[in-house]
Amino acid sequence: MRLSDRGGVLLSWNRIRALRDGLVVAGLLFGVYLFVVVAPAARTFGFDAMSYWGYDPNNPYRLVHGSLGSFVYSPVIAWAFEPFTRLRWIDFLWLWTALLVGSLIWLGGRSFLLLLAFPPVALELYHGNVHILIAVAIALGFRYPATWAFVLLTKATPGVGLLWFLVRREWRPLAIVAGVTGVLVAISLLFDGQLWVQWIRSELLISLEHSPNQPQIPLPLIPRLVAAAALVTWGARTDRRWTVPASAALALPVLWIAGLSILTAIPALARPQLQGRPQSVASPQAAPDAV
């Protein structure tokens, strides 16, 4: 390579790095704006987190779907979150935010600031939903499949990512997911089966048929589910793990911008301790894991 060519490559790389750094700074400033300017004025910090604290454990589905404090997840999750309802709101909010930030640090490692600069992440931390926790569950799910139970029992439809194991004929992880989820559901049914009827009628069916009147990406669920299934199927055949969190984000019941924070699972997928057991790939065209 001639000196002039090397200089051109170096210049191009410097421009790319400058653009990257500029986007990171802009993303971090957006997060600062949300918490320093928007939060005091709008007073909506923790809007979604309120649902995990303010519901009635004895009647979790009494509030109208989509209203402040309405609980929309399965009875298993209602039971799991019940201890949170005993805390003061301010204590719970900071504890919950610390959990989300800690999860983000675990997911990103040295790339934590890059994830923090991703605008959907700032929105997620501001509203306090469970998308970052779903990202953790998906990342861990390659090594510990039981964590997929959290995904299925909260948002449900991102479970399309489990096609990864089905396409690759990895039956053991699928059996673990089915077993753990099934046991949790069975125990919940034994204690209060009527709650499941209420959840299906007042939350699950409504959320699948009618989107809340809140800012979202207006793409219908069924086409997104088809696209998500196609994406993760291709990813499973070509050994691209990043397609699992990508398909899960695409398949959310409602495509919130903050829901794209599920993509924060991607950096963690390259960790050796999360690789899981070696498995044969169903396609002869499989390539080395591209994360």
Q: Would you give an account of this structure?
A:
By secondary structure, the chain is mainly α. The protein has 2 domains: 1-43; 44-274, no CATH class. It is built from 12 helices and no strands. It has helices spanning 3-42, 50-53, 75-81, 89-108, 112-116, 119-127, 131-141, 148-154, 163-167, 171-209, 221-238, 243-250. Helix 1 (3-42) runs parallel beside helix 6 (119-127), helix 4 (89-108) runs parallel beside helix 7 (131-141) and helix 7 (131-141) packs antiparallel against helix 8. The two termini are 31 Å apart. The model is unreliable at 278-289 (pLDDT under 50).
The proportion of residues in beta strands is: under 5%
The total of helices stands at 12
Gross geometry = globular
Helix content range of the residues, please?
55-70%
Major sheet, described briefly? Answer: none
Chain-averaged pLDDT: 87
> What is the helix/strand order?
HHHHHHHHHHHH
Low-confidence stretches: 278-289
- The figure for the number of domains is 2
User: Could you tell me the number of beta strands?
Assistant: 0
Distance between the termini: 31 Å
